[in-house]
Amino acid sequence: MVEATEETTRNSYSNGLIQNVNGASDDKLDELRRLMGKTEGDPLRIVGVGAGAWGSVFAALLQDSYGQFRDKVQIRIWRRHGRTVDRATAQHLFDVINSREDVLRRLIRRCAYLKYVEARLGDRILYADEILKDGFCLNMIDTPLCPLKVVTNLQEAVWDADIVINGLPSTETSEVFEEISKYWKERITAPVIISLAKGIEAELEPQPRIITPTQMINRATGVPMENILYLGGPNIASEIYNKEYANARICGADKWRKPLAKFLRQPQFIVWDNGDLVTHEVMGGLKNVYAIGAGMVAALTNESATSKSVYFAHCTSEMIFITHLLATEPEKLAGPLLADTYVTLLKGRNAWYGQQLAKGELSLDMGDSIKGKGMIQGVSAVKAFYELLSQSSLSVLHPEENKPVAPVELCPILKSLYRILITRELSAEAILQALRDETMNDPRDRIEIAQSHDFFRPSLLGQQP
After folding, report:
1. How confident is the model over 398-446, as pLDDT tens digits?
2. Quick one: CA torsion of 385, 387, 390, 392, rounded to 10 degrees?
């Protein structure tokens, strides 16, 4: 069922504030409509699939920029119905509403305030899709968004969509898009899909390789890879919606990435374009692995700057080593990878998760989907990278033992994280023991090994040698 937002004419909401819209948005929208073959009276249909923090913010950014052109574009977001808001969250949500006069006035105008009062008192149950209509993402309560058009029926959401935004975690992408493919069997033209997911899965047979969310979507739906793109960067969703300066890259085929970069670009959110889709996508998953360890180190050393810098040196050397396995020109990835890693270590959910585990505030038995945070994609990425890099078919020459070894043997932090998070044979303190191992090589040595050997394994990305 589609929920309508309140009337806006030539204006758009931004955190509840009315913002004037200039002609640039109209021009960019018209340009994309022409490219997609839209005629007058046929709106461009954009649908977000998945309503986590980044997926919800992305839909809200589009609504803020283009939602006022209702005859030209329709922006909606799908999330599953039935997720309830517990009373503690309802209380917090009520406090957020009353701390923001603009949000409070907006809800009163929409006759939507009373239900939050009732939920606070325990007299009413709120649902995640219901509050999203009012601009509240369950994973990001402290950052009110603009009102959104919410759809809870997946078929209704996607069957005629021109652009689909994948806001699902990688662990759910295949399942949901396999269902979506059932609704696209009668389509004449393929939609354009932009994936925001930062995660990977491993496929070990017939040969070890990484499977990324864009590849999952391609397999599930048959939509050609030239119509599937990845958008990622060093971004914290709430900060982007609060107009902090940020940048991102949209990666994919020439046909769509440049016009979409232009369409998505805003004064405070710069979007560049790049043709290297899969490698950038994999890098987005790789930094989540090491962010969890960074959070553990921070918690276990009482935020010691020295200990965190030691960890950063070793984790970046492992990431550089791994990029040499995945790219012919890994140096081109250094800037984007380190920037994304830096912001994730500072404020990302994966680093937060590592901290909470080390402090005992969370346990592994609670799973990867955490209340108020959403899916912690770094956990599945640890498993995927470890399993892939453990394959003897990918062996590299050990610098000291002078014999072939699986690449993971040169990645002690990755090995420790796997034993902490996946096999659970070690406690979080093991991450410090790995750093303090007197036999551990200088991080520079690992980089020199990678730079001095032909490590590139195109098969890991499903490419031919």
Report:
1. 777 778 888 898 899 999 999 999 999 999 999 998 888 766 667 777 7
2. -120
Give the residues across from 94 on adjacent strands.
none
Helical (H) or strand (E) element with 397: strand 396-397
* Euclidean distance between CA atoms 41 and 57, whole angstroms: 27
Could you tell me where the DSSP H helices lie in 211-347?
A: 213-221, 237-241, 254-264, 277-300, 305-326, 334-347
Which candidate, 167, 161, 6, places its Cα nearest to that of 79? 167
Gap between the Cα atoms of 62 and 25, Å rounded: 10
For 228-283, the pLDDT digits (tens) are 999 998 888 999 999 999 999 999 999 999 999 999 999 999 999 998 888 888 88
Q: Which two tokens stand for residue 284?
A: 């987005």
The question of whether 373 is a catalytic residue gets the answer: no
- Percent pLDDT > 90 in the chain is 63
pLDDT for 74-110, tens place per residue?
999 999 988 999 999 999 999 999 999 999 999 999 9
Pairing assessment for the beta strands 228-232 and 192-195 based on DSSP bridges: parallel
**Residue type, position 132, single letter:** L
In terms of Cβ atoms closer than 10 Å to its own Cβ (0-12, 13-18, 19+), residue 400 is exposed
Q: How far is CA 229 from CA 70, 97, 399, in A?
A: 25, 36, 38
Q: What are phi and psi of 369, to 5 degrees?
A: -100, 110
Active-site residue, from 115, 149, 287, 415: 287
